[in-house]
Design brief:
The chain has 9 helices and no strands. By secondary structure, it is mainly alpha-helical.
Length: about 190
């Protein structure tokens, strides 16, 4: 019985099977497909890298597109976007903003990148309303450097995420394959 659109949305936001079971399902799905270590690691790295971009509602779509583009695992790309979360976004966005300010200044676009002295992105946690009100009044001053810096950070950090994730993925895949081969041997 196919699920309706509302049920699919609800399941995506809060799975009825529980988060642990959903995680195990996707872990099995990734390893069962027979994808190479490259495909799985590349997908995870893409998902983590696009988390630097400021367009929060599009991270999953970006991960799918870029994973497909580099021939990585699309499912692993979706899982990789979980690296971007409420605890890591502030660090990622401050880094992306600082890189974007420097690049915009280098290109001579200082009017977009310079914030007033009373509003500093690093102090956004101390005075969130001042930062939020300034962002609403002048969205381009923050969005342009954040976007430019976000994509530059994504390009720079993709190989870093790939290098950090390759060995754990290789070990996990090898362990998964051995475990299921032994299980099949006992069943036969």
């Amino acid at each position: 019985k196919p699920h309706g659109k509302l049920k699919k949305v609800r399941e995506a936001l809060w799975p009825s099977m529980g988060w642990r079971r959903m995680f195990n399902y996707y872990r099995h799905r990734i390893f069962r497909t027979g994808d190479s270590n490259y495909k799985v690691t590349a997908g995870l790295a893409v998902g983590a890298a696009v988390s630097f971009t400021p367009f929060l509602g599009t991270h999953i779509l970006q991960a799918m597109f870029f994973s497909w583009g580099i021939r990585g695992s699309i499912v692993a790309g979706l899982i990789g976007t979980f690296i971007g979360n409420p605890w890591t976004y502030p660090v990622m966005f401050v880094a992306a903003y600082e890189v974007g300010v420097r690049v915009c200044t280098f290109w001579g676009i200082q009017t977009f990148a310079v914030l007033p002295p009373d509003v500093v992105i690093a102090n956004a946690d101390h005075e969130p309303w001042a930062f939020f009100l300034h962002m609403l009044a002048h969205p381009v001053k923050i969005l342009l450097p954040l976007t430019v810096g976000g994509y530059i950070c994504a390009i720079v950090f993709w190989p870093v995420f790939y290098a950090l994730l390759y060995y754990p993925v290789r070990v996990a895949r090898t362990t998964y394959i051995r475990k299921h081969r032994r299980r099949r041997g006992h069943e036969a």
